[in-house]
TrEMBL record:
Annotated catalysed reactions: DNA(n) + a 2'-deoxyribonucleoside 5'-triphosphate = DNA(n+1) + diphosphate
A family per Pfam: 5_3_exonuc_N
Subunit structure: Single-chain monomer with multiple functions.
Species whose genome carries this gene: Paenibacillus mellifer
Domain of life per record: Bacteria
Name used for this protein in its record: DNA polymerase I
Length: 886
DNA sequence: GTCACTACA
DNA sequence: TACACTGTAGTGACA
């Protein structure tokens, strides 16, 4: 089936220009309109898969329409030079893509398109017209659809005759009559005064056309009749102006409009010249990408698997040196408690399925030795989890070289589907069924029979082998090889070691804390019921809201989607009104400690080791941070004393040892000082000043002695805001001030730290141009919504653009420090163990004789993890438990 | 499963 | 315009 796409070049380029933020390439050329246009082109090509294309442009200022009406298109503002310089670029780009374009003096793009649709229609071809001009709807027919742009040019709304009927109650040709009556201010077409869209539609529904309306003015009355009679000629002329001329001598044959997919050899240099990096990557010619004519994903093929038994184990053993990929399947969310289902081992030509009960046998020692050999490089999926699952089964795993899940995370940390099934689809490989499909989910989960399980794992292994080279290419292309092979892969082993080690918990002390909390909680509950005059579930926000707002009549400060808000912020404001509020706040605090930190933690203590073994997830946070689960040891209370006590139960696992903790001081602001190059901020850190006091001095223009506690507090909030991608609203909420005051603060901050202002402006521009931002170690995060027309989406992406390089670079640095620290412990033959990472803090357990060296070695290693233009500082302390190591 | 809430950096 | 500062995990209520 042949399909022609015709594009009104002028209409689209104008819309693209006004809907996109200004954008220039490094030589100062304006490119925003071309960018928007190209973006739309790519989408059209991908979604519509046209066989023929042509872009029509207006040529010259004067058209045949001016002959009859001098004022046609009068009153328009002059085209800005930033836009007019983009027309030649756009034509050049079309040529480089292999897309035909056409213009002819005296005619508008509309007329050229009208002519070509007529010809194509007569030849029985299917046509899609893309424009921002509603007039074009007049050419719609069964074969010709018109897509009108919405929201700039990012979305289009296609119309066929039925849709025009539904929306206007008109036939396509009546669109001309509509315009004749209502006119068009943008083209300076007068129409009839006093008649807008509504009236015009009413008249047309009644009479059908301009001529018929004018012939029946006697049936009308009032001002409308008068206007129609007096402006009958205007109406006729307006209709004529709005009529698309469909007999333009267009010298383009059907063959000349043929589109054979984007021509890579010429398109790539053009996109490079324009510096459209994100588009270049999106098209990814090598991987098939979006170019037309792309092959459909291959069909799922049958896969042969060798089931390994005692009898044929020797075949596998002989083939071990050829194994290229490993899939170890297990179920259960917590890898420390997961159950292994089976293992697939694959060479380029053969898949083996090795059941766990075979692997366990005495006679499979060679296979186990192979798994444990760190000199045998292993490629697989989620090897961090594999390591843990095998470990708890008593099987050692080492030598992870390429983890496909981890690589996928680096290539796009926000991709929610990291499964092999999803990756196979992304790389256009033969489809791999999802795990849920094969195993069922929730209550329906079932381990399948060995035949089905082995086939599924082999399919995954097959996809794995095909994905590996593609990921290597991608990692090289994005200069992420060091990040992957020298940082994240080594770190994944270190994390597994930390998790296996676990952290010892003083169970008795924890239970005692629980008893203490329980006593306080029950007192509070009694008191709250007394004051409320009834019993209710304080944990239920619904019931609590009813008591506070309906029964006690307290003022409603804030509402949630589903009812009254009762969060801490609201309760703080309500505290002066009623004594019950304070008790509820205290109850909430203690209930959280009891349920999450006492009861929750007790449940996570391993009966085998008496420790908690958290699971650090390396592929979750979009910024590159780690996350921690089962239990989360990255959110153990510290701010309030009651909660901080929880830290007393985290103790060394050996008699007489110590807990040592070291945390980076202001790592994020130091990173900001480095990447922004702001002299004031750099100076502060070079002299190791109190950064919030220094900020207060510069923002308020006072000396160090004049900074009071309140000024410092404000400065601190501004510093936090800066790191998060500041907004006046966010700061105003934080400091409980008006938005205006907050905006003034921010302005003063940027006046004092102009390098920071420049960084924030530049990084947002960069994100808009490239579609992603990067950290110091080339970690990247895509921000597809950075050019969205929706204010919220766009603002969120802009703040993310500001925050991610900061938070992400800080994550890079502490990860580097962990890898270095692991090396140092090994090099010095130390018995000390790294236990935890809490974003800017590392926690160790240390034997007494190493306390001295570790107190020096840890902050030193952290301090020189990465050299910045300002010093990195880490502070260390130690004690008998985590509470004391503060 | 989603929401509201709260804990951390 | 609308409506809002980064990144996470866990719990209890309620559908």
């Amino acid at each position: 089936m042949e399909k022609l796409i015709l594009i009104d070049g002028n209409s689209i380029i104008y819309r693209a220009f006004f809907s996109m933020p200004p954008l220039t390439n490094s030589s100062g050329l304006h490119t925003n309109a071309v960018y928007g246009f190209t973006n739309m082109l790519l989408r059209l090509i991908q979604e519509e898969r046209p066989t023929h294309m042509l872009v029509a442009f207006d040529a010259g200022k004067v058209t045949f329409r001016h002959e009859g009406y001098q004022e046609y298109k009068g009153g328009r503002d002059k085209t800005p030079s930033e836009l007019s310089e983009q027309f030649p670029l756009m034509r050049e780009l079309l040529e480089s893509f292999g897309i035909a374009w056409f213009e002819l003096a005296g005619y508008e793009a509309d007329d050229i398109i009208g002519t070509l649709t007529k010809r194509a229609e007569e030849a029985g071809q299917e046509v899609l017209v893309v424009t921002g001009d509603k007039d074009m709807l007049q050419v719609v027919s069964d074969r010709v659809k018109v897509a009108l742009t919405r929201k700039g040019v990012s979305e289009v709304e296609p119309y066929d005759p039925q849709q025009i009927e539904e929306k206007y109650g008109l036939k396509p040709l009546q669109i001309i009559d509509l315009k004749g009556l209502m006119g068009d201010t943008s083209d300076n077409i007068p129409g009839v005064p006093g008649i807008g869209e509504k009236t015009a539609l009413k008249l047309l529904h009644q009479f059908g056309s301009v001529e018929e309306v004018l012939a029946h003015t006697d049936e009308l009355k009032g001002k409308m009749k008068e206007n129609l009679v007096n402006h009958a000629d205007d109406a006729r002329m307006s209709k004529q102006l709005a009529t698309i001329f469909r007999e333009v001598p267009v010298e383009r044959s059907w063959e000349e409009m043929k589109f054979d997919g984007i021509q890579e050899e010429s398109a790539v240099p053009m996109l490079r010249k324009l510096e459209f990096k994100s588009l270049l990557e999106r098209m990814s010619f090598a991987g098939g990408g979006n170019a037309a004519g792309e092959a459909a994903p291959a069909e799922q093929v049958e896969i042969e698997v060798t089931m390994v038994t005692q009898d044929n184990l020797s075949e596998l053993i002989a083939d071990l040196s050829n194994i290229e990929g490993i899939i170890v399947e297990s179920y259960g969310d917590n890898p420390h408690q997961a159950t292994m289902m089976g293992m697939a081992l694959s060479t380029a030509s053969r898949h083996y399925y090795l059941p766990f009960d075979v692997l366990q046998e005495e006679y499979a020692a060679e296979a186990r030795a192979w798994l444990a050999d760190e000199h045998v490089p292993k490629r697989g999926y989620d090897l961090h989890r594999v390591d843990l699952v095998l470990f708890w089964q008593g099987i050692a795993f080492a030598g992870a070289e390429h983890d496909v899940q981890l690589a996928a995370y680096l290539l796009d940390p926000t991709e929610s589907d990291q499964t092999l099934s999803g990756l196979a689809a992304k790389y256009h490989l033969s489809p791999v069924p999802g795990d849920d499909e094969v195993y069922g989910k929730g209550a329906k989960f079932k381990v399948p029979e060995p035949e089905e399980l082995s086939r599924h794992l082999a399919r995954k292994a097959d996809a794995l082998l095909r994905i590996l080279p593609l990921q290597r290419q991608d990692l090289a292309k994005y200069e992420m090889e060091r990040l992957f092979y020298d940082l994240e892969m080594p770190l994944s082993r270190i994390l597994a070691d930390m998790e296996k080690q676990g952290v010892a918990v003083n169970k008795e002390a924890l239970k005692e804390l629980g008893v203490e909390f329980e006593a306080q909680i029950s007192k509070l509950v009694t008191r709250i019921y007394e004051i409320a005059g009834q019993e209710f579930n304080i944990n239920s926000t619904k019931q609590l809201g009813e008591i506070l707002f309906d029964k006690l009549g307290l003022p409603v400060i804030k509402k949630t989607k589903t009812g009254y808000s009762t969060d801490a912020e609201v309760l703080e404001k309500l505290a002066p009104y009623h004594e019950i509020v304070q008790f509820i706040l205290e109850y909430r605090q203690l209930a959280k400690l009891q349920s999450t930190y006492v009861e929750g933690l007790l449940k996570e203590i391993s009966p085998k080791t008496g420790k908690v073994h958290t699971y650090f997830r390396q592929t979750i946070a979009a910024t590159g941070r780690l996350s921690s689960q089962y239990p989360n040891l990255q959110n153990i209370p510290i701010r309030l004393e009651e909660g901080r006590k929880i830290r007393k139960v985290f103790v060394p696992s050996e008699e007489g040892w110590f807990i040592l903790a070291a945390d980076y001081s202001q790592i994020e602001l130091r990173v900001l000082a480095h990447i922004s190059g702001d002299p004031g901020l750099q100076e502060a850190f070079l002299h190791d000043m109190d950064i919030h006091t220094k900020t207060a001095m510069d923002v308020f223009g006072v000396g160090p002695d004049q900074v009071d506690a309140n000024m410092r507090r404000s400065a601190k909030a501004v510093n936090f805001g800066i790191v998060y991608g500041i907004s006046d609203y966010g700061l105003s909420q934080n400091l409980n001030i008006t938005r205006k005051e907050a905006a003034r603060f921010i302005d003063q901050y940027f006046d004092a730290f102009q390098g920071v202002r420049r960084y924030m402006d530049d990084i947002v521009k960069e994100a808009k141009r490239d579609g992603y931002v990067k950290t110091l170690l080339e970690r990247r995060r895509y921000l597809p919504e950075i050019n969205a027309s929706n204010f919220n989406l766009r603002s969120f992406a802009e703040r993310t653009a500001m925050n991610t390089p900061i938070q992400g670079s800080a994550a890079d640095i502490i990860k580097l420090a962990m890898v270095r620290m692991d090396e140092e412990l090994y090099k010095h033959g130390l018995k000390s163990r790294m236990l935890l990472q809490v974003h800017d803090e590392l926690v160790f357990e240390v034997p007494p004789e190493e306390l001295e060296i570790m107190s020096k070695l840890v902050p030193e290693t952290m301090g020189k993890a990465l050299e910045l233009s300002v010093p990195l500082k880490a502070e260390v302390s130690s004690g008998l438990n985590w509470y004391e190591a503060k």
